[in-house]
Amino acid sequence: MRKLKYILLIGIVGILCGFNLSACNGIGLKPERVSEKKRLPPDFPKVYSLYPEAETRPDKGPGGWWESFKSPELNRIMGLALNENFSVLKGISRVEQARYKASRAQSWFYPELGGSAGVGTQKLKHKGQESISTDDWSLGLNAAYEVDLWGRVRAFRTSETEKFSATREDLKAARLSVSGALAETWVDLIENRRHQDLLKRQIELQKRLLEVIILRFPLAQATALDIYQQQQVVEKLKSALIPVVNNQEILKRRLALLCGRTELEEKFLSARRFPEVGKLPELGLPADLLAARPDIKAAGLRLKATEWEVVAARADRLPALRLTASGSSFGDDSGSIFDNWIYNLAANLAGPIFDGGRRRAEVERTRALVDERLQNYREVVVKAVIEVEDALTREQDAAATLASFKKQRALADKTLREARRRYLNGNGDFLNVLKEELNSLQLDHDIISQQSRIIGARINLYQALGGSWMDDFSEVKEREKNGK
Fold first, then answer.
1. Which of 148, 163, 212, 383 could lock onto 23 through a cystine, CB 3.0 to 4.6 A?
2. How confident is the model over 313-356, as pLDDT tens digits?
3. Is the overall model pTM greater than 0.85, yes or no?
4. Is the Cβ–Cβ distance between 202 and 93 less than 8 Å?
């Protein structure tokens, strides 16, 4: 008899599990999908305006975009940032939260099983008679399960799974953003150092020129005004050097923050030359961005998740079938606990009759949310295409401007040499020399700034194009965090 009772209780739980399996293949509602055509703006370009001959971008395999700059220093600090940056670490935590939220939604496919056990003693004394003691022992199990007739549970589970996938894409987007911010700050630091080196050379040059003017003064070949003007130039250069030097400390601290630290050792930040900028990467087609950009994929996944939320809201308006089962045994002592047995199996079908339109309003609200997510997706797609176009335009503009500055610098050298010759021969005014000196100095700084702009535009282009390097990196980091 005892074995039979155990078998009955186990059978009850098995029946509930069987309903779970059948519900997975039930008659559930289907999501109201937004077609692929409607997801994209009507004027979505087929090719980029500057490079219409581009073809589908080939898969470059593993390796980050920054490796194209061939800088060991950038590679080292990039490795630190992509592992230790606070935004990245918070992103990993958000992925874990979404992972377990999706796991919790998955658990609703299975019945909820609970147990209870108890023991108690009662004493009865009536009209002075001897008290009577009784012991009560009990043991029970109960199970409950909602049959997913309309696919509400399945829709909720799928929605959470899509949100989990979107959070993973957010992590990749965070890494992409951090990689760009780090590279841009690193290039800014090099630009400051080059400005600093140029200012120091100019200060030494202007000091030597001042010494020459002072030597010419007793010979009546220079005036006091020439000396004062040259002294002003030296002091202006010294004052211009101060913020350049101080800004380097700010940039170093910014780089340290991006790497999740308060400071970086000097050995990590010693570069004083700009990295090489090679030929343009394979651009591919604008349509390639849909798979290469993590922010686009995240927006698309959230749109899908909201479509499934509509299904869950619609199913919530329909009747729900809930199964319950319970079994318990009791006795006067532990030895007879299985002598008395009772079990119950029930099915309950309940649905809303009147709720003031609350559930219908929730369906329409969720549908409106789908439209919002659709517009957000289209916005992200348009921004991605524009970012690529802007980066290409900026690099093209910076390259043309740099070429112009170099031509101007060559002409300024000739003009300066002639102005100095005329002044030293007593045929020219020192003001002309001073004017050409300052013009040459400004052109030198402009050339440095344009070189930095070209690299910055290339960094923006790499960010705008996205890529597959984040996929492998993200998987490795998450496995490490989970101890797998």
1. 148
2. 888 888 888 888 887 776 666 666 666 677 787 888 788 888 88
3. no
4. no
